[in-house]
Amino acid sequence: MCNVSFFVVLRRTGPQWDPSKTLEEQSGWHEHAAFMDALVDSGFVVLGGPLADEIRVVLAIEAASDDAVRATLAADPWSTTHLVVDSIDAWTIRLDGRRSRAT
Fold it and tell me: pTM of whole model > 0.85?
């Protein structure tokens, strides 16, 4: 059985991000969206989305290691072009409201 941990990832807009365009108007949007949807479907991404400044994106990820997070996100069509990783931090979950809602 694989040991799984949670990570909080902070990404920010990269060098090919065009601030004059909306998220959906950025080049390669459909490929990026399909990639991220697949990560959600597989359970890798638990939560994710842009912060209010629309420059930074936060992802809550469930993975075996920091290296697994980096390797998976490197396959994103927007990796290093439209989004770059600022930080990846291990996250100790002490409160989880999803459990109480599931019963």
Answer: yes
